[in-house]
Design a protein that fits this description.
- The structure is a single chain.
- By secondary structure, this protein is mostly helical.
- Among the domains are: about 55-100; about 115-155, no CATH class; about 165-230, no CATH class.
- Helices cover about 60% and strands about 5% of the residues.
- It has a two-stranded antiparallel ribbon with strand order 1-2.
- A hairpin with a 2-residue loop joins strand 1 (about 25) and strand 2 (about 30-35).
């Protein structure tokens, strides 16, 4: 590319010490400066724009991984192949994680639920035809513990393994059992929600306080029995 005239040259590129040291070409007494670094940057940017317009094929992905495995830097591979460093970095990270560089084809949004969770949602929706999306989301979170798991992972909290056969030492379970037995013994039994609500309040007030006190006082014995059985079944 030949450019004549100092004014035209000034419009295109700023003069500085590095550009002056790039070298000169003499042509008919006129100086034509070769700005190799600027030309190289232009070519690289042009390739980057072209590469961003289409997905990388498997062959090009292999070339990228091959160069990186040979010790080339992200910047060197980016300049050679005309691909942004962020794309190369993601591809390299994926290759290190699972050893796969092929593009995964999918349609629509990625799945966020498992088949078991899908079945649970279907059953819940059939039981309550008026269920909303937010209601189903809350039910799924409470049933699977997804929200709790995500919170623990985000806070880097290690959770102890708790086997399924471990006893529940929550004493309120026994209080609920007392209340349930009292409701079941009522004659006639409640036939609607308002009657059930009134019956629960009545029976809750009728539970003797000494039963609650005895339950609270039994907690040390329950804890000792649980420790002695290594977290397995206890007589309580």
């Amino acid at each position: 590319m030949h450019i004549t005239g100092n004014h035209q040259m000034a419009r295109i590129v700023r003069h500085n010490d590095e550009s002056v040291r790039e070298g000169y070409m003499r042509n008919g007494g006129k100086e034509v400066k070769l700005f190799t670094s600027a030309l190289k940057a232009f070519q690289c940017n042009n390739r980057i724009v072209m590469a961003q317009r289409k997905h990388l094929d498997d062959f090009l992905r292999g070339r990228i991984i091959g160069r990186l495995e040979c010790g080339r830097t992200l910047l060197e591979v980016s300049e050679e192949l005309g691909i942004t460093q962020s794309v190369i970095s993601r591809l390299w990270q994926r290759f290190q994680d699972d050893g796969n560089v092929s593009r995964c084809y999918s349609t629509g949004r990625p799945r966020v639920t498992t088949p078991n969770e899908d079945r649970y949602l279907a059953v819940t929706a059939k039981r309550n035809r008026r269920s909303t999306a937010s209601y189903l989301s809350r039910q799924l979170s409470s049933a699977t513990g997804t929200t709790v798991d995500e919170c623990l992972q985000s806070e880097d909290i290690t959770r102890m393994d708790w086997p399924a056969y471990s006893p529940d030492l929550n004493s309120i379970e026994h209080v609920w059992d007392m209340l349930g037995r009292r409701i079941a013994a009522r004659q006639p039994p409640p036939t609607c929600l308002p009657e059930l609500r009134r019956a629960l309040l009545d029976e809750w007030c009728n539970i003797p306080q000494d039963q609650i006190d005895n339950l609270i006082l039994s907690m040390p014995r329950r804890c000792k029995a649980c420790i002695a059985s290594s977290g397995r079944h206890t007589p309580y």
